[in-house]
Amino acid sequence: MRSVRALVLGVIVAAGGSAAAQEKAPEKIAFEGGAFTITETADLDKILAYDGRQIARNYVVYFNRVIELSGTKVALFDVGNGGNACGPATVIAWKTETGLQSDTVGEDCGAPPAAATGDKLYFVPYLLPGATVPVQAWSPDERLTVAGQLAYTPQPGTKWTDLETTTPTYIVDAFANQDVYKAAERLLGASLNDVATGLSVGSGFEQTSSGILYGHGCVPHACGSADAFMAIDPRGRKLYFAQQGDNPPLAAWPQLKNWPKELRKLMESALK
């Protein structure tokens, strides 16, 4: 009996040792007399800490870089939920006489990558059609401030005819065409940004035999809730949009009675 117990204990110890060996050692980044660590937990998320003090915790934590702004060293980390079309926020850390300080730029789906000048960081956002958002700036002295407003604008001079020879890589890229954007503004009105958001996680366009481009997408981290469909008829210079909703369950621009039958079937199949 003793030999059996010893054997079982030996297996448990060996298994425990093997599991411990597989655990990743914390990543260490030296900074201003101390060190940041990025440690993966048993829940598979990660903890960012400085000299043992937790700064942030999430499923995505990456060291970005250390820069110098007006003589102050600043460490940048990417921290977020992860997922398609949803970038991380930026954690900014620096030291003062009172110790390590930190700020976080970016909310739900993060912040754009920081662009550095000699004295400031600038966060220039990626815009969806219909959006106007602030450009944020950060410095060690002023912390986070608003540098200005940025509005989505299509490429000047682009025409319907451009789409007959060049197909946009992704669905939302089609709004960069000036003729398409102006037509979408007229057709969708205040719903432009909502519909564009519903197309932001999607693949490229497909094409019907008659030359109509069509595709569908969904909202980041919410596929199945407000999925959207878009079709472009470059020759007829017409657009078609549809989006899932609660009341009504499906909104369409123009009204479905004005859609070509083939296109309506494609939309219903995509948003079923």
Largest sheet: 6 strands, antiparallel
Give the percentage of residues in beta strands.
35-45%
Query: What percentage of residues falls in helices of 4 or more residues?
Result: 10-25%
Shape: elongated
Oligomer state of the chains in this structure: single chain
Q: How many domains, as an integer?
A: 2
What is the succession of H and E elements?
HEEEEEEEEEEEEHHEEEEEEH
How many whole angstroms does the radius of gyration measure? Answer: 25 Å
- Total beta strands: 18
Structural class: alpha+beta
* Spans of at least 5 consecutive residues with low confidence: 1-22
Give a summary of the structure in a few sentences.
The chain is an alpha+beta fold. The protein has four helices and 18 strands. Strands 13, 14, 15, 16, 17 and 18 form a six-stranded antiparallel β-sheet that branches. Strands 1-2-3-4 form a four-stranded antiparallel β-sheet, with no helix packed on it.
